[in-house]
Specification:
Distance between the termini of chain B: 22 Å
Number of helices of chain B: 7
Distance between the termini of chain A: 9 Å
Order of helices and strands of chain B: HHHHEHEEHEEHEEEEE
Number of helices of chain A: 9
Structural class of chain B: alpha+beta
Strand content of chain A: under 5%
Helix content of chain A: 55-70%
Oligomer: heterodimer
Shape of chain A: globular
Helix content of chain B: 25-40%
Structural class of chain A: mainly alpha
Number of strands of chain B: 10
Shape of chain B: globular
Largest sheet of chain A: none
Largest sheet of chain B: 4 strands, mixed
Chain lengths: ~220, ~260
């Protein structure tokens, strides 16, 4: 299950295929910007009429200054989030990257890799290979973002998207789903960033497409 | 949609265009208020590397995108798609009061001297009295009022269909906008497609009784296909036009279409 085909690693060092292709890095970082805009402006919108008692987000971590400004950011950011997300999904499917790197994934495999990780026996030597905990986490993030977009559509246009509205249990339920999906996404981001801190080379890979600053092929690790 | 709209290279063009737009659209004090409220930026500038600390640039770009969103919503709007209706048992009692002023400042309108002005692209510009509005076919609906803040409440409104009224005054139904002026100085405007929607009512009643002052006596426009702030209360003048009309909250940054 080595993701890097032999003929590429054995080719000239200057022609090696990046661990993360350029399109993936671009969509990843655009998505990061979109999610920050959406979450921070969404918190300001939430504050205008809290769902959960008196719970409000501190104004300092929100975007937009006031409800009208936050809505403008949110309804601008939604285009970046949706169009970039669509590009990400299409490119992943068309290039076969998902099939190669996100699958197979099974509950048993996730538990096994989680146990290996907790006992510090999981190798991070090969950043081109996602363990099953990573696969499950990334697939969860994508599914959660889709749920955020769908519940957002229901809140934005509850009359114009009747099927989606009924599937999500009506306007008020869609608001709660939107909030919970946001909270789960923020939880994912916290873990995601913690993992990057633990394995800093992964940040380099997501920025440069490779895990070293020298433009050289890494000797293939015994995975 | 260009996600790089606020990068440096096209910033100058956007700013100059937006200045022109905004000076036309915004009264100076509202514009200053918007700028003063500012935009909290946090680490966003670092992340994006874009110059969003220039609030005029960001504001202009956001205003432009909001106009694009108006067009998209107009395209999404289906004049035959009805908002869900609910049983009377689900009506919110008391229904929330919401305005840009306190409930103690609600205007009191005298029913006998009330006259509704109609102007613009209409054949018949005579003023309407309340009993004439009541003589039009009356309809009733129990629908959800959705506020831009996120809360919602179910209410029961009754009155003539706005489409029937527009036909009665011989309005140009191909005109683009219908604007409203209210007793409480509120003003807003909507697209003709929404004006002609079968659930768009000139509401005279709330819960089977004449509209109480706090809900907009003597008449409010009730549209379950739009957010609350697009539903003006205490309407005193209606005008049909092809020129873009503003709105009290829209001038401060709320989306003009405001559809749901």
């Amino acid at each position: 299950m080595h993701p890097m085909p032999k003929q590429i690693t054995s080719a000239s060092p200057h022609q090696h295929r990046p661990l993360q292709p350029l399109w993936l890095r671009i969509t990843h970082w655009l998505n990061a910007v979109a999610v920050v805009v959406m979450v921070m402006s969404g918190w300001r919108i939430y504050n205008a009429s809290p769902i959960f008692g008196d719970f409000r987000f501190p104004a300092g971590i929100t975007l937009g200054g006031w409800l009208g400004g936050a809505l403008q950011w949110h309804f601008a950011g939604m285009w970046l989030l949706a169009l970039n997300g669509l590009a990400y999904l299409l490119l992943n499917l068309l290039t076969g990257r998902w099939a190669r790197r996100m699958f197979p994934v099974s509950p048993r495999g996730v538990l096994r890799d989680a146990w290996l990780a907790l006992t510090a026996r999981l190798s991070h030597a090969d950043l081109g290979h996602y363990n099953q905990v990573q696969r499950a986490a990334y697939l969860f993030a994508v599914a959660d973002l889709v749920l955020l977009v769908v519940s957002g559509l229901v809140i934005w246009k509850s009359v114009q998207f009747p099927l989606l509205r009924e599937l999500l249990g009506g306007y008020e339920m869609a608001r709660r789903i939107h909030f919970i999906a946001m909270a789960l996404l923020v939880g994912f981001i916290a873990v995601h960033i913690a993992m990057v801190v633990l394995v800093p080379r992964s940040l380099l890979t997501m920025l440069l497409g490779r895990s070293t600053l020298q433009r050289k092929t890494q000797p293939e690790s015994a995975a | 949609m260009n996600p790089f709209i606020w990068q440096r290279n096209n910033a100058d063009a956007i700013v100059s265009e937006a200045r022109k737009l905004i000076t036309k659209q915004l009264p100076q004090d509202a514009r200053r208020q918007f700028l003063r409220r500012g935009l909290t930026l946090g680490g966003l500038a670092l992340l994006s590397g874009c110059r969003i600390d220039d609030s005029a640039t960001a504001e202009a770009a956001l205003t432009r995108i909001s106009r694009v969103n108006d067009a998209v919503q107009g395209w999404l709007f289906d004049g035959s798609r009805l908002a869900p209706t609910y049983p009377d048992s689900m009506i919110a009692r008391p229904f929330p009061f919401n305005a840009f002023y306190a409930e103690s400042e609600v205007p009191r309108v005298d029913a006998s001297s009330y006259r509704l002005e109609v102007s613009g692209l209409v054949a018949d510009k005579r003023r309407w009295q309340l009993h004439e509005l009541r003589a039009l076919p009356q309809h009733s609906q129990v629908t959800r009022h959705i506020c831009v803040e996120g809360w919602s409440a179910i209410g029961k409104w009754g009155g003539p269909r706005f489409g029937d009224f527009l036909r009665a005054v011989g309005a140009d139904l191909s005109a683009r906008y219908v604007g409203f002026q209210c007793v409480d100085s509120y003003y807003t405007s909507i697209d003709m497609a929404t004006a002609l929607h079968p659930q768009t009512l000139l509401a005279l009643d709330w819960d089977g009784q004449p509209l109480p002052p706090r809900y907009g006596f003597p008449m409010k426009l009730r549209m379950p296909t739009k957010l609350g702030y697009k539903n003006p209360k205490h309407i005193t003048a209606i005008f049909v036009s092809n020129t873009y009309n503003r709105g009290y909250w829209e001038d401060q940054g709320y989306n003009w279409f405001g559809g749901s």
